[in-house]
Amino acid sequence: MANTKHVFAFEDGDGKNKHLLGGKGANLCEMTQIGLNVPPGFVISTAACLDYLAATKLPTGLMDDVQAQMRALEQKTGKGFGDSDNPLLVSVRSGSAMSMPGMMDTILNLGLNAETLQGVICATGDARFGYDAYRRFIQLFGKVALGVPDAAFDKEFDAIKEAAHAKQDVDLSANDLKEVSERFLAVVQNVTGHPFPSDPYQQLEIAIKAVFNSWGGKRAVDYRRQFHITPDMANGTAVNVVTMVFGNRGDDSATGVAFTRNPATGENKLYGEYLVNAQGEDVVAGIRTPKPLDRLKVEMPEMADQLDALRDKLESHYHEVQDFEFTIERGQLYCLQTRNGKMNTVAMVRTSVEMEREGLITKEQALLRIAPDSLEQMLFPRLDPTIKAEAVAQGLPASPGAASGIAVFDADRAEQYGREQGRKVILVREETKPEDIHGFFASEGILTSRGGKTSHAAVVARGMGKPCVAGAEGISVDVNRREARVGLTSFKEGDVITLDGTSGKVYLGAIPTVEPDFTPELNVLLGWADERARLKVMANADTPDDARRARSYGAVGIGLARTERMFNDVERLPIVIEMIVADTPEQRQAALDKLLPLQRRDFRELFEVMSPNPVTIRLLDPPIHEFLPDEHVLERELSELRALAQNARGVTVLAGAMGLLHASESVRHDIDIARRMIDPAVVEDAIGKKEAMLKKVRALYETNPMLGHRGVRLGITFPEIYQMQVRAILEAAAECAKAGIQVKPQIKVPQVCTAEELRKVKTFVDDIHAEVAERYGKPVSFKFGTMIEVVRACMRAESLAEEAEFFSFGTNDLTQATFSFSREDAENKFLPLYNQSGILQDNPFDVLDVKGVGKLMQLAVEWGRSVKPDLHVGICGEHGGHPASIEFCHKANLDYVSCSGPRVPVARLAAAHAALKAGNK
Ligand code: PEP
Ligand code: MG
């Protein structure tokens, strides 16, 4: 559109409009406007980026506006763009509405050419500084704007370093760097076929286009896909043009990155690193290992005080932990950018609680700033402290947690081994770059031999909640030989290593890990969450251990105990099989009589662990043939047995034919042994049993078992099974009650589609209840309810509500039933394509399909409560632990969600978010 304003000086841009100015640009405007010392500059909007990408040319008049802004910068700084006496240099940075660290490209020192370089050298009196800036510019511009690979520059640079016997970049002289720049110019000429552009405005225009183009680059696209960044969250990148300030102007200059609080622990203390006489990229790229900010107090005490003041100003303005970059140029402190700090969850939780106590944020803000899903990170394992192991290397504890896996030395291979082959992988690099991102996704942990706690590896690993040890300088990584040397020892690709990102230690071999504890702050935070949530959070737990863990995470009951999991035990399976293959009701009852005490013990343990909270036990659900051996295995075994029988008969026949049965004692003895070893009678007996089993398996075979003889259908055709379970539940409850343990048993019937099914089950439940009450001398109260997991159950909610005291949505089955997708087939075959092509936004087995499945749930709730207003309703499918689905459950007026143990904290926070968001609207 003509006359749209695309270019905004930092003094004018709306600091709240991240969509238009990008996060970084909006912040630079805001920082300028609240009086922080920000180098002058301006922002080109994301709208200009979108226009450019659509039209493949810059919007009309854009460069005129840019020129006007450059003139304003010249005025503010007293320097001239392209001026050979006192040249103005700028950085050109990307920045979209969502922070995408390391995903987009930045160009520094733009405006340098042969003439302005001399101006810089004259103005600073520092030729080394000038050439250093120049060579950096040529490489960055060459790479980002002209597509010259880093390797081409690195080769030349390393050659000069070697010739100069320089260990580090700072050891290179002005002359060395001059030669570096000359060689770099030649590299650009050779690779692109054109000379390096020397006109500063031409450089600026190319750079702006390159930043715009990087929005559509592979790295950025992959990142957005991985983190589900949709166009309404961020669309296009802004370009920030900022006056250069130099941290590499000598020993009174420095550059650094800092967090207002420690991003690994949340400790309320300025945290970060700096390098004297260096540029920002040196810190981020991890080329030199920086010093911790504590040292600044010794080296530049006045600057350290100013930095503390800056920290306070940032937090009191943003009410959020800030991750900021600063530069000290000849004793002058500049703040170059700030953004909300990406922290691991431990730190997020601690800062939430502490900032609330400091009065910086409210309890609601403290809750809402934490993504519920991230809480699972706090349940990550740590190294078993009872295991004594000698670390082989010590690096920086860059992202907490512990992991073991095979060492892999590049990102592609990490992806191949980790993602494709499902192996546990530790990515080992000298330092990482944004293009390694796919290797991060596939790895359990990341180890680098260079770089600090704010290096790329550290920042990205923390964001992903993966353990990272950075800057383990004792390790020398040889990518070509796929080997790392550590002192006198070494490890190769494929060798197992262990990282402890909390201590920074690296070990050879695998070290076991243990479950972590809740931090006191997490308990405080979840306490606040419970006060605000309306939905209660229960757990899906089948064993006492699961139940204990879920309870320690704050579950207020068991919403689903799947009894079939209790049958799948080496000790019990033979009895279960006996029950299934029984030919008469008496035989079946005999097997059930053996199972009864076992089940009673199971239920009693669950009741004890959860007392006095409710425990919802679901009667047997899956088709019983699932407990029987596989038909093909049986067939093979049978044919082996038949062959054996032939042999057994053969020995007997042979012995008879040879008259050996009347032979000498010792020969007869040998024949006897041979016959006993394969006793025909024993073999025949085994064949008979196998044949019977095979017959049973064939009889129970179903073309579509998930839609077949399972759930309540089984309970109706084999009532003895459900009766045994109901008796076990009620007897266990009666035993507990007798022992003074408060219990709230709930009996839940699966796969119900008609009220008549429920009535049938309820009849024998009532009979057994009366019988147990009489035997134990006192009735135990219990609730009787139904799973709602078939479509007809939703449609018949009114009549089901007449029989049931509670509804429990089994959204795993309900999703299958609503879509008519079988989960296993869908996820392996067409769902990925459906998601990629946008036919379905999400995998409905992960994210509740609110429009379809959710609609059925709403109807069932409404109709069920129309008959029974106090009908208790919850969800126990996988979706019960997912924040977006929990938000829907809140809106749909459910009473509780039930999810697996480790999701309980997630669900508690998500339930609070749901209530707060609904309240805020
Ligand atoms: C469900 O269907 O959502 C459910 C909880 O049952 P299951 O996953 O055991 O079939
Ligand atoms: Mg189910």
From TrEMBL:
The record ties this protein, via InterPro entries, to: ATP_grasp_subdomain_1 (IPR013815), PEP-util_enz_mobile_dom (IPR008279), PEP_util_AS (IPR018274), PEP_util_C (IPR000121), Phosphohistidine_dom_sf (IPR036637), PPDK_AMP/ATP-bd (IPR002192), Pyruvate_phosphate_dikinase (IPR010121), Pyrv/PenolPyrv_kinase-like_dom (IPR015813)
Occurrences of domain Pyruvate phosphate dikinase AMP/ATP-binding (ranges) = 19-58, 62-291, 304-358
The family classification in the record reads: Belongs to the PEP-utilizing enzyme family.
Pfam families, sorted? PEP-utilizers (PF00391), PEP-utilizers_C (PF02896), PPDK_N (PF01326)
Example GO molecular function: ATP binding
User: Which residues are in the PEP-utilising enzyme mobile domain?
Assistant: 424-504
Protein role: Catalyzes the reversible phosphorylation of pyruvate and phosphate.
Which residues of this UniProt protein bind Mg(2+)? 789, 813
Q: Which cofactor does it need?
A: Mg(2+)
- Answer whether the UniProt record assigns the keyword Nucleotide-binding to this protein: yes
**Organism, scientific name:** Chromatium okenii
Active site at 456 (tele-phosphohistidine intermediate), 876 (proton donor)
| Catalyzed reactions | pyruvate + phosphate + ATP = phosphoenolpyruvate + AMP + diphosphate + H(+)
Q: Which domain of life is it from?
A: Bacteria
- Annotated PEP-utilising enzyme C-terminal domain ranges read 525-914
Per its UniProt entry, what is the enzyme's top EC class, as one word? transferase
Entry keywords, A to Z: ATP-binding, Kinase, Magnesium, Metal-binding, Nucleotide-binding, Pyruvate, Transferase
The EC number(s) given in the record are: 2.7.9.1
Name of the protein this chain belongs to: Pyruvate, phosphate dikinase
Annotated positions binding substrate? 562, 618, 789, 810-813
